[in-house]
Amino acid sequence: MKRPASRRARLTLGLAIGIVGLAVASALSLVFGSRIVSMDEILSGLFNRDPESFGAIAVASRMPRTVLAILVGGALGLAGAVMQGATRNPLADPGILGINLGSALAVVVGIAVFDIDSARQYIWFALAGAALASLLVYAIASRGREGATPLKLALAGAATSAALSSLVSAVLLTRTDVFDVFRFWQVGGVGGADFGQIAEIAPFLLAGLVLALFSARGLDVLALGDDLARGLGAHVGRSRAIAGLSAVLLAGAATAIAGPIGFVGLVVPHAVRFFTGPHHRWLIPYSVLFGAILLVVADVVGRVIARPTDIQVGIMTAIIGAPFFIFLIRRAKVREL
What we know:
Number of strands: 0
Order of helices and strands: HHHHHHHHHHHHHH
Largest sheet: none
Strand content: under 5%
Protein name: Iron ABC transporter permease
CATH architecture: Orthogonal Bundle
Family: Belongs to the binding-protein-dependent transport system permease family. FecCD subfamily.
Mean pLDDT: 83
Helix content: over 70%
GO molecular function: transmembrane transporter activity
Structural class: mainly alpha
CATH class: Mainly Alpha
Number of domains: 1
Keywords: Cell membrane, Membrane, Transmembrane, Transmembrane helix, Transport
CATH superfamily: ABC transporter involved in vitamin B12 uptake, BtuC
Membrane topology: Multi-pass membrane protein
CATH topology: ABC transporter involved in vitamin B12 uptake, BtuC
Distance between the termini: 28 Å
């Protein structure tokens, strides 16, 4: 009886430490930019003591960026955790399984054919592209006697991503006007957002979070294998469908507003699994929290090292995430979940 209570206390303490870490990262995001703003100026801007002060101007521009980084990082971290659990594939993530490129292709087509130009329009195309890409990958991987094994999913995702990337390039090469609009979105970044755009994606992120929480128990059972899960009375297909819909909503909405950002959904679930173990009731909140921390920190680092300009956060997550993920693989020798 003492051991579960001790473990629960340790995991609760870890969440509390993560919340403090996210608060510190968010404060740094408000402080650092093209110019460093003191905390006194930030507090003055937050409480509108002087609306014309540089602190107020900095808060007005950096606060939406920080909030968006928190939401997108949390969404991508959670999407990766859900996808890895649903597919039992340690390499599953919105980028590797083609969801990001499915969203990208849909947005490109929307810009080229339907002249879309706002986050509200992007999100529907991105969600549709993410859903179709995920269904295509799963359908390809399901062919054959063994069904959608982790290896087949990874191969199908890689092949589908390559094909979708070629289609995106084909559209952009023939439409330079589309390329001018798309190239800034394609890199992946959280700059230039406003609370109006954030409000448009928030319902989709909330729906994805609710579905992920609802699927936590089913994902724990799926980890035992499909045959044993069925023997225990679990609805394997329904559990995967709910988890898949959650991942599509989270990754599609995040990609629609921030562009395709890689490595967050891949690295974060592996990192937090060292502390939480495989149980999704803890893995889900940890993935949300530390995905948000990773993206906020990556955005801050990108602004600091390239001041007065900044490096897009999609580039920074690749620089930070790739070596860290290699370290995780070498240390943990990650296999099928």
